[in-house]
């Protein structure tokens, strides 16, 4: 899948990320789950991206998951997804870059939407 593509279940791939200084970058021409995708996730300059959640019934983006790379006490970088649902911030731990796959983020997006 390339950015902006929509899956049958209504969740797509990341549209934008931020560089090491927090500046927003444009759309990412990366194929999810490709070697270049995982290399991009591992890159020190990669800090976050937005993952669109599509409303398949209406054909538009309903919301976004914000996925951020964070440092943990145990060392290394780990990814966490965030989304406001019903006035509360929902947080879901994704793990290391190798576990940040399209299927995993899509499943988390669906779970967060189903369980506000």
What is this entry, summarized?
The protein is an alpha+beta fold and 116 residues long. The protein is built from 2 helices and 6 strands, in the order ββαββββα.
Entry keywords:
2 helices; 116 residues; 6-stranded antiparallel β-sheet; globular; alpha+beta; 18% helix; single chain
Description:
With 116 residues, the chain is of the alpha+beta class. The protein has one domain (16-114). The protein contains 2 helices and 6 strands; from the N terminus they run ββαββββα.
What is the N-to-C succession of helices and strands? EEHEEEEH
Count of spatially separate domains: 1
The neighbouring-strand order within the major sheet is: 2-1-3-4-5-6
The value of Rg in angstroms is: 14 Å
Compute the average pLDDT.
77
Percentage of helical residues? 10-25%
**Major sheet:** 6 strands, antiparallel
